[in-house]
Amino acid sequence: MAATRLEHGIWILVADGEKALFLRNEGDVKYPNFEVVREMKEENLPTREQGTDQPGRFFDAGTPNKSGYEETDWQRIGKERFAEKVAERLYKSAHRGEFEKLIIVAPPVVLGTLRKAMHKEVAQRVVEELPKTLTNHTTWDMEALLKKSVEQ
C-alpha cells in the first residue's frame, strides 16, 4: 500500500480497549492539526473484579480424571465489546457522510475486533491501519508520531 497522507479533513481513530478518540485533521499534509470530534470511554475492570466463580470441571472421556475449563477473561471480552461499539459509532458517522477517509490506530487485538465488526461502508473508507497504542498520548504527540509513521 502506498503511503497515506494526512490530508485535510481525514479522520483518525485512535483506540484501545477502554478509550477511543475520533480525530479530524484540520491542518494540512505538512502541518497536521488534530481536533477531537468525539471521545468514547468505558471502564474495564480487571478480570479478578469482574468474575468470582471458579472455572467449571468436567470428567475426561473414559477416565476417572477431572479437567478444568479455561478461566473466562472478562477484560478481553470487555475490550471486544467496546471495539464493537466503536465500530457501530463509525458506521453511524460514515452513513451521515461525516468522513471520506479513515486511519485506524489501535493495538492488534482491538484492531482485529474492529475489522470483524466494521460495516462495509466504513471498511471502504479505511486507508491505513497502524497496530499501535496511542490513546494516552497528547494530540500533538499523535500528530508527530502519525506523520512519521504514515509517511515512511
UniProtKB/TrEMBL annotation:
InterPro entries: BaeRF_family12 (IPR041374). It holds the Pfam family baeRF_family12. Residues 43-70 are annotated as: Disordered. It comes from the Bacteria. This is Host attachment protein. It comes from Nitratireductor aestuarii.
